[in-house]
Amino acid sequence: VQLVESGGGLVQAGGSLRLSCAASGLTFSWYVMGWFRQAPGKEREFLATISRSGSNTYYADSVKGRFIISRDNIKNTVYLQMNSLKPEDTAVYSCAAKNTIGVLRNEYEYDYWGQGTQVTVSS
Fold first, then answer.
1. Which of 52, 92, 110, 123 has its CA at 20 to 30 Å from residue 78's CA atom?
2. In a 3-state reduction of DSSP, which class is residue 67?
């Protein structure tokens, strides 16, 4: 199983980025997907999760209304659209996968992780 994130970079505060996580080696539509981030010196933080079909999503309060998680089960890819970015959003962003149903906030329950992509928001 491989999860590969892309789309990170440097953006000014107030700007937008769309992250992608391409999955391979698994039946993607069987997997709940999640996005997390980790800033230097901080613990990993849950951001968003999406059910297998994409019909259910759940967000952390810190990103609700700014970030949107979506998936394309044909392209085996999950996305994170990030709007109104703030300097405090600077972190390494990672996707994760778990063969289960519903949605999943707990990082310790995910089975597979990507390497992450750096997002830096300048003020």
1. 123
2. strand
Q: Within the chain, what is the greatest distance between any pair of CA atoms?
A: 40
Unique residue bearing structure tokens 């089975």: 111
In angstroms, the CA 78 to CA 95 distance is 8
Contacts 24+ apart (CB under 8 A), 59-68: 60/105, 67/35
Q: Are 79 and 18 in contact (CB under 8 A)?
A: yes
What residue has token string 């968003």? 48
Print pLDDT tens along the chain (123 aa). Answer: 999 999 999 999 999 999 999 999 999 999 999 999 999 999 999 999 999 999 999 999 999 999 999 999 999 999 999 999 999 999 999 999 999 999 999 999 999 999 999 999 999
Helix, strand, coil percentages in the chain from 3-state DSSP, rounded to 5: 5, 50, 40
CB 103 within 8 A of CB 56: yes
CA-CA distance, 49 to 69, in Å (whole number)? 7
